[in-house]
Amino acid sequence: MDFESFALAATTDDLTREPEARGLADVVEFRMDKADDPLAQLDDYDGELPLIATNRTRWFGGQAVDTGRLDRLSAASRSESVEVVDVELETARSTEWILDELRENGVDCIVSHHTFEDTPERDILDAIFRQCGEYGDVAKVATFPERHTDVLRLLRSVATATRKGTDVAGIAMGRIGSHSRAVAPIYGSKLGYAPLAADESKYAPGQIPLERLRSLVDGLTEESEIQRADAPDDRSEPRRPAER
Fold first, then answer.
1. Torsion angle, CA of 102/108/113/114, rounded to 10 degrees?
2. 102 contacts: CB under 8 Å, gap ≥ 6
């Protein structure tokens, strides 16, 4: 999958709802851990949007049982519609074979880390982004802010990792962090997530519904590009002070 520009993922556990995401999302995140018979849904899928397969355990905010979880994720990666698979950093570290197997099946890998209690300090955040990027094609880091300065810290890490050449997705969860989902693309985040209508609280705290987030991201990024185009060229020769 091309991560050169920002992509918005519509999150769902029901692939028959994919038509609701068309024209708004660039990709569908299929939450296998919350889905009924997920492999059968993949076999029957005939939608237009490509898929990200996610199969989270309870340890990482999902519902999948550990037994057979990675086998089901590997099976999903063999689906023609699945272009990306999400693997937790902890899983990538302890079970590196899964990344090799997924890539042999022709998919890209998001390596993700979630902190549900707080937002780490900058040096730790930067290290997490770096480690996720070493294992995956996209480094996804989601944290829980207790104050707005925590969100700023995450966004600074997003910008730093992007500047160093890592494709990242940065998300601040919860009410305080909700706006990060709209502004993170300005700082370099390449992937965002939004639920379909009426599913706002089903997958992660602080999510913004798909249609609204699409509008916010498009409006903010367009305005940012206009401001960048109007700004003076940093490489231009500085003006001389006026003679007195």
1. -100
2. 73, 74, 77, 85, 87, 109
DSSP state of 76: H
Residue 206: its pLDDT value, please?
A: 81
Tokens of 132: 């996720």
In sequence order, what are the beta bridge partners of 84?
52, 108
Contact 78, 104 (CB under 8 A): no
Summarised one tens digit per residue, pLDDT across range 6-61 is 999 999 999 999 999 999 999 999 999 999 999 999 999 999 999 999 999 988 88
Report the pLDDT value the prediction gives residue 201, as an integer from 0 to 100.
Answer: 53
Give pLDDT, residue 59: 85
Q: Looking at residue 191, what DSSP letter applies?
A: E
Positions annotated as catalytic residues are 114, 140
- For the segment(s) 7-230, the CATH number from 1.10.3720.10, 3.40.630.30, 3.20.20.70, 3.30.450.180 is 3.20.20.70
Q: What is the dihedral of CA 176, 191, 166, 232, to 10 degrees?
A: -80
pTM: 0.89
pLDDT band (50, 70, 90) for residue 240: very low
Task: Please state the φ and ψ torsions of residue 33, each to the nearest 5 degrees.
Answer: -65, -20
C-alpha 58/C-alpha 187 separation (Å) is 30
